[in-house]
Amino acid sequence: MKREPPAAEDINLVKFLQTYAGTPPPPHPHLEQRIVQAALHQHQLRQRRWQVLSLLGAGAIATATGVWFLKPSTQVAQQTPPDAVETFITTNWQAMFHDGDPSLFE
Amino acid sequence: MGVSLPLSAAIASTDIVTRPQVNDPDRQMIEQCLSGHPQGFRGLYQRHQQRVRSLLFQLCGAVALDDLVQEVFLRAWKGLKSLKHEAKFSTWLYRIAWNVACDYRRQLATRKSRHQQYLYQSEPLTPGLDLRQLHYEDLVQRGLATLPLEYRSVLVMHDLQGLPQKEIAEILRIPVGTVKSRLFRARSTLRTYFTEAGVSL
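Structure tokens for the assembled complex are given below, as produced in the milestone run.
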């Protein structure tokens, strides 16, 4: 793909423009280095962002997994039949307040 | 002088019109860049910086040229991942340069300070040139400055950068017919300007 040649009446104008368009001033001597450094810096920032995001993701997954698997199971109290001593104490203790003779405490 | 430009245009610039597979000589360096090697990016910069610089100089002047060139290449670096495989890198890069130039001129128009006017007036002259050369260079710069940016960019890309009309149409996302008409108008406006300034072409 090449540039279309100018029409005959434009040839002089185009030549004049090309001759006197001027040249840009030379770049700062460290411009190339500055641009490459800035690009590298961006690249590192992007990498670091991904690292942080992947760490956060892994942490979230680990937390969710932990919550799921380490969830304490519901504890149900074991109900064993009361033994004889316990029944005796309970009965007598309650009898002291409800059925006891009040004169005993006076 | 630091230049901070909005990124909106850069993001918009990344999806250049696709076309059939192009054997892009820059592809290898692009692949290097994508894998994070700065050498590839350095290669792309060295290969294209002169033309990008020249385009920006003709569109925006010399004041913030280094900053603008840096902006173009950093936007390119950021957007490389979104560069489609079929797209030609140089066309895509020109598109970014065009966006950066537009942003810069918009920014200048909104806050044209006295300081910047002073800087513009005190641009250093190229040493070692005769007065006639300087006079004509100044005349061309003034002539270009009279053109609206749309016409100026087409003229600069076509007549000074040597880009074909089809590629300019892709860069500016306008039909080829519009490129032709803008080129015609830009040339006739400039011819009139030069004639009034005493230069017959």
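The two ends of chain A are 122 Å apart (CA to CA). Chain A has three helices and no strands. Further analysis is deferred to the final report.
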